[in-house]
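Q: For a teaching handout, I want to show students what a protein-ligand complex looks like in token form. Below are the inputs, and the small molecule is zinc ion. Please produce the holo structure.
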Amino acid sequence: MKSQIKCVICNRVREDSSKMPFCSLHNAAYRNLVAKYGDWKIAYHDLSPKEFLEKLMDNEYSGKWVKEVVREILSHEDLMQTFLEDLAYRGMRD
Ligand SMILES: [Zn+2]
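A: Here is the structure, written as tokens, with zinc ion included.
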């Protein structure tokens, strides 16, 4: 039987091309996070991925979608691992 293909945050249909269990909207927010980390790291003179996520959670300018994704990553070790892998992969290409 096929596993559940709903987004873990909002129950919309999940995007199958992604490793993350998110719908296309939450996935877009997630990809944004991965893309922004490098800039933040430079701006803050080194910032761990976890500190980056915590800052986004506290930031009043972070959008609703981003915050939902961040909360999900911070509360699930497996999602955090995937996030770290995606950051490392991105770092290698830059
Ligand atoms: Zn979703």
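A: Two things your students might notice: The radius of gyration is 13 Å. The pocket of zinc ion is lined by residues 7, 9-10, 12, 22-23, 25-26 (CB under 6 Å).
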